[in-house]
Amino acid sequence: MTNSDTKATLSFSDGSPSLELPIYKGTIGPDVIDIRKLYGSTGKFTYDPGFMSTAACNSSITYIDGDKGELLYRGYPIEQLAVNCDFLETCYLLLNGELPNQGQKEKFVKTVTNHTMVHEQMQFFFRGFRRDAHPMSVLVGTVGALSSFYHDSLDITDQHHREVSAIRLIAKLPTLVAMTYKYSIGQPFVYPRNDLSYSANFMRMMFSNPCEDYKVNDVLVRALDRILILHADHEQNASTSTVRLAGSSGANPFACIAAGIACLWGPAHGGANEAALQMLEDIQKEGGVERIGEFIAKVKDKNSGVKLMGFGHRVYKNYDPRAKLMRETCYEVLNELGLHDDPLFKLAMALEKIALEDDYFVSRKLYPNVDFYSGIVQRALGIPVALFTGIFAMARTVGWIAQWNEMISDPEQKIGRPRQLFVGSPKREVPPMAKRG
Ligand code: ACO
User: Fold this and answer.
1) How far is CA 35 from CA 19, 38, 42, 61, 221, in A?
2) Residue of the CA atom closest to atom 27 of ligand 1
3) What is the CA(437)–ligand 1 centre distance, in A?
4) CB atoms within 10 A of CB 325
5) Which residue among 45, 121, 292, 397 sits deepest, i.e. has the most Cβ atoms within 10 Å of its Cβ?
């Protein structure tokens, strides 16, 4: 970041002296006003619940232009990465800042592949869960538990330790997600196979069993790989900020990623694809396309509490570029599986069309986000609805760990400690029991 020639001057109507604040410029995107000296100089904090106007860090990983509907990983548009690269190339890019050449790619793939197994004792952690536990609850627990196995990579001040932890997390998440699924359906865990690609190996760990191997289908594997690329990072979203905040205290990377998974679970974040598919299924059950009008009326009625899941985004105030790519993948997958007439896909497209013409959505700049179509794709791949957010966690792990690593390496990094506007009772005396109301 560079200092701008322009400064911001903060003046007060109560006669307190005004304060000049520096403005910094990024390479693209909005400038920021540096308010770090504000409290020291004025005794006042800023108030910004939900971080609507606050940059909590500087970062050179991912950039979103919400008005243009643009998403860049290390400067490269998501549309180009989704078409020209696979997920592990994208991981390399996010972690290292540049795309790998052939030799670097081969080395990286080999390193990740060599870390796909989890410690054999991990299976006992799974056995402690009820079979009907939500996969995200199992993942929060088991990913956090990884920190008890890899003491040799927990020194966060050592760059090599950080790199090894990053590789371990990226390599082991598919194994843990697949184990979560196998445990829930009472099938034996399937060990990873290192001659398969990252996504093909995951599909095999999910869908093969000792009696029947999984036949790799390139279209379906590519679809999963695209889901992973599209979800790999998204700058300072809620779960990434959670990872950074957890990590700011010096917590180990496995614990930080477990915190990110916990945050991702919520329906306003990663849980939205599960909620979006559920919503489509509910409308379908009640009569399908014919009932869209009625459903939209409910969404527009603020008292109903109903939202159009998979629509709207804190940053995108234009079409989410990932949603376009996901819709394309949706076509490909349904075609491959002979499901051209899938009623949920038709319903989703009709719902999208009607919403995009409705003034409620237009005036609020609400467009489909990536989750609107990703649920239909995942369902077609055979992934159970409850595992959708787990797939998201598997994809986002690289983004979380890249952002965590960037934070740890940043000399300006401090423990995250937001302030508050206190509106509770001022100091008072504890009354004796007999005098309490
Ligand atoms: N359906 C109906 N109305 C909506 C929706 C929606 N999906 N999203 C926002 N609105 C309305 C709000 O009620 C509000 O209306 P108002 O101005 O009349 O009060 C207005 O649009 C602005 O919305 P906010 O909630 O202020 O927007 P915010 O940036 O805080 O929220 C969020 C973004 C949480 C994603 C929201 O759009 C939402 O809940 N969407 C549905 C859940 C979803 O799809 N989440 C996935 C996000 S993408 C991801 O995590 C990968």
Assistant:
1) 10, 5, 11, 23, 47
2) 314
3) 42
4) 22
5) 397
